[in-house]
Design brief:
Strand content: under 5%
Number of helices: 14
Helix content: 55-70%
Number of strands: 0
Largest sheet: none
Amino acid sequence: MDNASGIGLLPWEADPYKLISWWDMEEFSAAQFYNIAELFDKFVHDLFEGYEYRGPHDFEKTIDEETISNLEKTLLCPIEEECQKIALCYSADAISQFRTDLRSMTFSVAKTRVEEIDRSIRREMKLHLFMYIPADRAEYYKPWGESKRKERGKEGPLFGNSVKSKFPSTDYDITETGNCFASGRYTACAFHLMRVLEIGLCLLAKTFSVNSDHSNWQTIIDQIEVKIKDIGKNQKKPTNWKEDEEFYSQAISYLTIVKNAWRNYTMHVRAKYTEEESELMIKNVRAFMQTLSKRLSEESEE
């Protein structure tokens, strides 16, 4: 797949938001940067020193066709192509225009234009920005983190395969949870976790026929806890009712911990979180959702 210039897509165009390692960047661009610098230096040397430039009066002479053809073929066209390869589009256009205008230029004008192109390449390189993510946080970033976890023989999804398959509606917010944590947006990470948690809470509420629409979280939790305590009192309770009671008691305890520790503060406009706090929150919400996935699923609720 090619971009508009006919050059193969750049790594960040082919797969937007994918993490690219320092090694990948060096492998991709170092050769081009080196080639551009080397070719440019040679071009300057050949044009202003290698073609019988003798003094100031020669600087106002136009450049002969043989010199232009030779420079175009061996240096200018290769420099333009290298610029296109690493998305220095404006610089590539400037070189293309320079090649067109070169036949009517004096050495003096050409020198000024070459200096402008050199500045253009430097400025344009500064426009390509890349954000550094430390390796320990990068493993939260999708899909890089998934591949690394799989390499170690672990489950790929951030919250595990069971949560991903049982609660597909959480996938977006779980992914954004990891991405926000990796990029240091810890408070945003907390908000996405609360959205995941709310899905789990609503599933629990439906299981016990508790209305969760427009209700306060504590009200819902209180009603669920009452229903859990009533499991053993039901005359038609199943033979494994103690297992049910233990399972749901554990699930609601995880939920209560997260609510009391973070949810109430996350909803407050001034709440801010550190890396340690958001990482602990991820672990607790993951534990809650993994616990639910042992018995519940969105499919069964539907």
